[in-house]
Amino acid sequence: MGVGAISNLQGHNSFDDVPWINDLTNFTAKAVWDGRVRVIGVCFGHQIVGRAMKVRVGRNDKGWEAAVHHMDLTARGKELFRVDRLSLHQMHRDIVFTYPQDVEQLGSSPVCEVQGMYLAKRLITVQGHPEFNEDIVKEIVESRHATGVFDDQTYEEAMKRAVKPHDGLVVSKAFLRFLLED
Description:
The protein is of the alpha+beta class and about 180 residues long. It has helices at about 20-35, 45-50, 75-80, 135-145, 150-160, 170-180, and strands spanning about 1-5, 35-40, 55-60, 65-75, 85-90, 95, 105-110, 115-120, 125.
C-alpha cells in the first residue's frame, strides 16, 4: 500500500482550469479509484479530492472561514475522530459544494457544508488545517490583512479565534489510524 497526501497550496484555486491543477485532479482520481494508495486531503487537497470525484468546487458565497471554527460531526465523523465535535483552524473561502457519491460525510460547519470526506481504505479529507497552530494562523491573518485580502472585520474576528483551542492532534491521530486500518 502506498500513501499520498495533498495539502495546502496558498494562492491557487482547486477549481482553476490550468494544466497542473487538471493533471493533479486526474492523478488524484486515479489514485482514489485504483486503491493502491490511500489519499489524505487537507484544505486545497480536500477540494482537489472533491473535484477528482466530479463534484463542484469553487468560491463560497458565505466568504472566509478563518482561524478556529467548530465542525459538527456526523455519526461516522464521531467514530473516526473519537470526539463529538471538532474545532479546527480554517483558512479558506473555497469549498466543495456537495458530497461526492460513495463517500461518507464526516462533518459540516455553518460556513462550509462539506468539512470532511471518508472512503474506507481509499481517502480521508478535511477542509480545515490540523497542521496549523495559533502562531501560523496569526501570521497568515496578519499578512492577508496587510495585503487587503482580509477586511478589518474578517481580520479582527480571525485574530480573536486564532487563540482558541483546536483539535489538530485529534485529526492527525485519525489520519494515522486511517493509514493503518486493515
